[in-house]
Amino acid sequence: MGRPYSGGGVRRENLTVRLRFVELRFVGAATALIEIGGLRLLTDPSFDAAGAEYDRGGYSLVKTTDPGMRPDDLGAIDAVLLSHDHHPDNLDASGRQILARVGRVITTGAGADRLGDGAVGLTPGGRVELARPGGGALTVTAVHAQHGPDGTDHLTGPVLGFVLTGDEVPAVYVSGDNASVDVVREMAATHGPIEVAVLFAGAARAPGIDGPLTLTGERAAEAAAVLGARTVIPLHWEGWAHFSEGIDEVRDAFAAAGLTDRLVVCEPGASVSV
Fold first, then answer.
1. What DSSP line would sit under 44-102, residue for residue?
2. Second CATH level (architecture) for the domain 15-273
3. Other CB atoms within 10 Å distance of the CB of residue 64
4. Is the pTM above the cut of 0.90?
5. What whole-number distance in Å separates Cα of residue 167 and Cα of residue 10?
6. Where are the domains of the chain?
7. Each residue of 119-134: pLDDT tens digit?
């Protein structure tokens, strides 16, 4: 299902035909380049090289793989969907440099305050309209993400997911760093139906928090069943030492749930069109 990506700026050829599809290029960890409705959106920019280490006060987060593409190869970006700015696996030093050259960053209110000019802060339910080439808009709606077990929001901080909707495009859910299937269920009841789900997996762990900070493979499969999406693309399953699961756990869980036909796995540096 994957197709090589040629790089460069926004591609306009055969735009009417392409509007019904979503193209995603997986950079690594939580970072992906999503093309939808003629727009190019970048999720949670993390482009530091393998070996980068971030001190979190008592423990460190360590980058284990290089990104699947270089920042210079991104081309034009219409907006960044930044689930949160305060964890380096979602926004690292190289990612911050990218924000400086992107016209619009959509993130949490606290994140927008810290980032300053060009950042739009939302709370769940808030929306931003992005003008599309040829007219119309893509609506970006912020939705709740629970970055850990129940009762740990004060430890992990505010995090968002996003729902992308517009005329003649599939409805896309980008989960952000969410660990709760109940949150997915509530989102689907309010913003569904969802056609394409981009789920952050990897079962991230941190000292002092008893439970995963992102979806396990089993929870990702459960979330997929809740959503009923025709396509599920997992992100956030490689690239950092604090991820306790990889893509094998995701594949196994989807197979056990009878959902393999919905799962589309994209390796870092590769792209898929769905």
1. S---PPTT-EEE-SSSEEEB-S--SS-GGGS---SEEE-S-SSSTTTS-HHHHHHHTT-
2. 4-Layer Sandwich (3.60)
3. 15
4. yes
5. 19
6. 15-273
7. 999 999 999 999 999 8
